[in-house]
Amino acid sequence: MKIVKSIREWKNAKPEKTVGFVPTMGALHRGHLSLVEEARNNNSTVVVSIFVNPTQFNDKNDFHSYPNTWEKDISMLKNAGVDYVFSPEYKELYSDEYRYQISEKKMASVLCGESRPGHFDGVLTVVMKLLNIIKPQFAYFGKKDYQQYMLIRDMVATFFIETQIVGCDIIRETDGLAMSSRNLLLSEPQRKTAPLLYKILQQTSNVNEIKKQLAVVGFKVDYVEEFWQRRFAAAFLGKVRLIDNVPLGETYDSCS
Ligand code: AMP
Q1: What is the pTM of this model?
Q2: Is the pLDDT of residue 251 over 50?
Q3: Helices 119-134 and 146-158 meet at what angle, rounded to 10?
């Protein structure tokens, strides 16, 4: 497995087609690995990026406290049969100092877009840059970040980017908590409460009832809303913001 730090180095690499790409911010867990596995099963070359993208953090503290488990990440990716890790510095990706940005004007202003101003501008901009650098035939995204997945899928279609976006199912801990790098930041009692987000979200009661129940067990609710045949929630345990979503009625294949 090769660790590539610069765009020039990547241009000198000779990846075999097809290239499957998994963008991440590191602090990897089995959720990330499920995307890597899907990429490994369907491509000759697998590239994983590790880049904690500052432009998508509307809260500086959140950015500075984002977990970093580099050594463990690298050994996990080696074991998963990854060919290249692309891990650029900020300046390499943002030579423009973020003067140029991709914005979506409709879907990005609800749910996480509403409570995290500028978040999706940062996400779409960095994903556009990464896709233009790596030029993968396939790129893999988790439905844990469902709104992000939809926005990226539509961005790629809108700008005629020749990458197929593959959406993969949410991977959960045995107690139902959606795997997330931020789970590392939970205290022991918070970790015990965290699976209730998924449990309560699955109940058929209405959105207001769900908000009440989440508050009762100790969450500070950001939103619970229904869109695109799914129910979405974001809620805080202390300073840690957790998100989750469940399909309403429909079932989904693991990757589509
Ligand atoms: P992140 O490192 O949080 O930016 O996530 C990188 C990719 O992994 C995104 O496409 C996420 O949606 C995906 N991902 C994160 N957690 C999970 C999970 N529990 N199940 C499936 N995909 C996930």
Answers
A1: 0.97
A2: no
A3: 50
